[in-house]
Amino acid sequence: MTQKRIGILTSGGDSPGMNAAIRAIVLAAHQFDFQCIGFISGYNGLIEQDYQILTPQDVQHIIHRGGTILKSARCPQMCTVTGLNQAVSSLIKLKIDTLIVIGGDGSFNGLLAIKQNWQGQVIGLPGTIDNDLDGTDFTIGYSTAINTAIEAIDKIRDTADAFDRVFVIELMGRHSGHIAFNVGIATGAEQIISFENFSPEQAQEKIIQIVNDIAKQHQQGKSSYHIVLAENLWPGGPQALSEQLKSMVDIDTGLCVLGHIQRGGSPVAKDRILATRLGVASVHAANRGETDIMLGELKSEIVSVPLSEAIMHQKKVEENLVAAQEDILALSAQYRKRIP
Length: 340
Known about the structure:
43% helix; alpha/beta; 11 strands; 4-stranded parallel beta sheet
């Protein structure tokens, strides 16, 4: 009987826990006597047939490492007929039976395109800090990104208090507010501006509201004010918001774009465990002959959802989380009104 061959690649933005997933796939595959082929730099490695055989020895000490030992990259060639045909040709030439991709919606679109031209199995694992894939409560890397941002903003609060300063802090998430809302609430941000509670058309109204709120809080002796902003949302970006506030409020306004720091670092326990569970589950799914699926975790149970449904972007920040922030602001305003 021919030995089953599993191809693995990490694609798109890296996320903490990708290495833990790679490790789990390789170790689980070893139990089934499957061979693992790791493609370097995402779909680029698949197209160019740049790969390495992965053994248990190759992954024995990587569960704690951020990034990905297979490297990651965008691959514009996968959006062309030529690039797609080359990817399929590589899978056939290397006799790959199952291709497992760890990534986000762009990576999964690549899987769906491959499946239209290839008879093998395709399985996706949700690896993105944005937590914007449907069919899973959490994506690999999201929990670490949250913790990283919280630690950074807690430190920013220290210097903001020391200088009585307003800070605008932009967080990643692409077009998802999961990071912004959870981090904003966890750090006690005075304002959270995200896709769930703001649209660019409300910018002028929002500026006036923030300015009034800053003035009231400083009257009551509050020494700092944090505005957590989701990326790709404010007209002109965080710099424009910061400059608008500086021109309207007679205090220093600081700007901090956390950026890619949220994608790095050693994964927290939650991401290591999630990645391990999903990696093992993907090998079992491959052994059962399953295909065209993403594996996720819902209410602590491993589930499979069609790839086409995982990329629909229907998962939103929980309404009760948005309401909680609004209630906090409302209660704070009521308290200030009662003070003589």
